[in-house]
Amino acid sequence: MLTARKLISSFFLSNPWLVTAAFLSNIISSLLNIIIPLSIGRFYELVLHDQSVKGRLFDALGVSLDSTTAFFQFFLLLITAKGFMAFADHFLTGVLGERFSRELRERLFRTQLSHSVTTHNLKPAGKYLLRYSGDLVFIQRFITQGTIQFTGDVIFMITSLAVLYSINATLTLILAGGILIAILIILLLSRILRTATLNRRNQRSVLLGFVANRMNAFFTVKSFNREAPEELQYNKRSGKLYDLGIRYYRISSVIQGLLPLLFFGTLAIVLYFISSERVTKPYGIHRSEALDFVLLFLYMQAVIRRILKVNVVWQAGSVSFYKLLRILNLPAEAKAQERELTGIDGRITFDHVSFQFANADAPLFNDLTFTLEPHSIIQVKGKQGAGKSTLLKIIQGVYAPVTGKIFLDEYDYAALAPNDIRRNVTIVSDETPLLGSTVFKAISYSRSVEKKEKAMQALAQVNFRVADSDEENLGFKLDDYGKNLSAGQRRQLMFARAFLTRKKIILLDDALDDLDAETKMVIVKRINRLKEKRTIIIAANNLPPEVRVDLVIQLGEHQNQKQPVSL
Q1: What percent of the chain has pLDDT over 70?
Q2: Number of neighbouring beta carbons within 10 Å of residue 182
Q3: Which of 68, 152, 165, 319 could form a disulfide with 172 if both were Cys (CB 3.0 to 4.6 A apart)?
Q4: Does residue 253 or residue 293 have the better pLDDT?
Q5: Are 370 and 538 within 8 A, CB to CB?
């Protein structure tokens, strides 16, 4: 099973040079933040001729600066290096985050495409969409701020505390104790914040799913004047999201308010200790020590704040990883290697097949037994809800039977991967909308130039024309799912797409609806000719008399009986 740790470690191992460069640039940039104020200690000695603790610490670096000219030359080199390393740190960390996000979203999309239809339908569209938007952003921050930047900040803090300890051990212990207390308090509040974050983002996905659903049904909303009730439903969900957002910001604002309070509270304790020491032991703490200590402590403020806030980044990233991994760990549909099933004629055999939806109280089919011979046209009839479309999906390998066996010629469906089955089965259905920005891309699987001639022929076979020339027909621009075409034109392209596949079995789900009389007759003639080489199964209660049907299967009369269907 995939975990966040496995995803991150796998990514780091596959990008060793980038990860190393990002970590090193961040660490060097952080260390320069210490060297720069130490170098100012040397300047303090050179100009004021007074001994500075930071100056003595700077001597430990092995750099000898005996004049102000040498100091300014070195200081210019130092700040130039800092500018370059700050650029490298920001750029490399950003690239690392973007690359991780890219690999993750591509993996997420690939994984979602591998799911079965049943698995895919477990979640509404809005929850899938949210994984590509908000969750990937939080995960990217987890990598950049919660891993790379946090590592540099920790090294900076350890080094800084070591420097402060060399200045004054007692004050450093007070400071470390204050930071530790602050971290514990922030951790406790962050646990509460995690629950608020999870609830808020769950509600956001509900709202996003509602919007996606209603926008897809926009014509329904308009047709039935449902603007007011739909707006009311949306506002109720939006109000709930608002309330959860207020709770989230109430907790996060407490954390934000505590950060400066804890930081400057620790500073106040340090200052009080310095003041007390000066009263009891006037010479116990040198003035330069006190000044150096406070200045370096103030310089650490930004890093301390980031360290105290990093738990929020971790919490948000953990929630996102949890939600993303729930999708990535869903079972994938079995997939076979690219291969051809040899000797396929297109015979479909049902042997005592039963099927029941997971949430249904009774089987939809029970004990179906029949054989659909190749080179024939089979009509599947039945009242509404009898399962005509479901039967086609079972033949297509989208659904698997609960009991019984199905055979494609001599091949047992149970021994085949669904993609093996679908290499031999194509379908025309409203549930398989057009995908592609042009007519050619919508009907051609390979979309290669060599396919254009056959694509033109397929358009002619379904009587499709929206432009004067064949090339213009193929290049005609389509909106999403071909919504800028009429329902009949979209259906024509679905037929063209199916005919281009040259698969042995063609499934038609009420596919002759929406076609004008002339086009319907053109396609019926094409279907009658295709049955010489194909098995054609049509789910429809009414067909034109010109369709040369060889067999009729009536659903709804036999599925509750414990004997084979009589043909």
Answers
A1: 87
A2: 21
A3: 165
A4: 253
A5: no
**Contact between residue 128 and residue 326 where contact means Cβ atoms under 8 Å apart:** no
Give the rounded distance of the alpha carbon of 304 from its chain centre. Answer: 32
Q: Is 385 helix (H, G, I), strand (E, B) or coil?
A: coil
Task: Give the mean pLDDT of the chain.
Answer: 83
Neighbours of 451 (CB within 10 A): 17
Q: 165 vs 395, which has greater pLDDT?
A: 395
List, as own/partner pairs, every contact residues 116-123 make where C-beta atoms lie below 8 angstroms and the sequence separation is at least 24, other chains included: 116/331, 116/333, 116/398, 116/418, 117/393, 117/398, 117/399, 118/358, 118/399, 119/330, 119/331, 119/333, 122/330, 123/327
Where residue 130 falls among pLDDT bands split at 50, 70, 90? Answer: low
Sheet containing strand 348-355, edge to edge, reads: 365-372, 348-355, 403-408, 411-412
Token output for 350: 């049902």
Inter-CA distances, 140 with 27, 30, 102, 314, Å: 19, 21, 10, 11
Roughly what angle, to the nearest 10 degrees, separates helices 301-328 and 150-167?
150
Q: How many CB atoms lie within 10 A of CB 183?
A: 16
pLDDT given at position 557? 55
Given 1.10.357.10, 1.20.1560.10, 1.10.1740.10, 3.30.365.10, which CATH number is that of 4-328?
1.20.1560.10
pLDDT at residue 561 greater than cutoff 60: no
What percent of the chain lies above the pLDDT cut of 90? 25
Count of CB atoms situated within 10 Å of the CB of 299 = 15
CATH number for 348-554: choose from 3.40.50.300, 3.40.190.80, 3.40.630.30, 1.10.3660.10: 3.40.50.300
Say how far apart CA 548 and CA 537 lie, in whole Å.
12
CA pair distance 368, 559, nearest whole angstrom: 7
Q: How many CB atoms lie within 10 A of CB 398?
A: 19
